Recover the amino acids of this structure.
C-alpha cells in the first residue's frame, strides 16, 4: 500500500511525501512508521529498486529522519527514485 502510494506520487510529480501523509494513509501515527518504512526498504532491495522509503520526509526539515545524518545517501537515493522507470513495475 505504501509502496504503491509512493510510486503514484513519483508518477504524479508530487514526491516526496511527509510522515503525516503516510500515517494518514495507513492509519498510524507518524512516529510509528519506522517498521513499515523498514519493510518498504527491504522490499525495494529485494526487487532491485531504489529505496522508496527515502521519499518519506519530515515536514519541517524535508529530510527522511532515518537518514538525516547521511545526506549524501538519501539525496542520491531520492534522485534515483525520481528518475527510475516505474512504468514496468507492479505497484502492488
Amino acid at each position: 500500500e505504501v509502496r504503491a502510494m509512493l510510486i503514484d506520487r513519483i508518477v504524479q510529480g508530487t514526491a516526496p511525501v511527509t510522515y503525516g501523509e503516510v500515517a494518514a494513509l495507513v492509519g498510524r501515527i507518524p512516529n510509528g512508521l519506522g517498521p513499515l518504512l523498514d519493510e518498504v526498504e527491504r522490499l525495494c532491495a529485494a526487487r532491485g529498486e531504489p529505496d522508496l522509503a527515502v521519499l518519506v520526509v519530515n515536514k519541517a526539515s524535508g529530510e527522511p529522519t532515518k537518514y538525516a545524518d547521511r545526506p549524501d545517501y538519501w539525496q542520491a537515493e531520492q534522485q534515483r527514485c525520481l528518475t527510475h522507470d516505474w512504468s514496468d513495475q507492479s505497484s502492488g
Q: What stands out?
A: The chain has four helices and two strands.
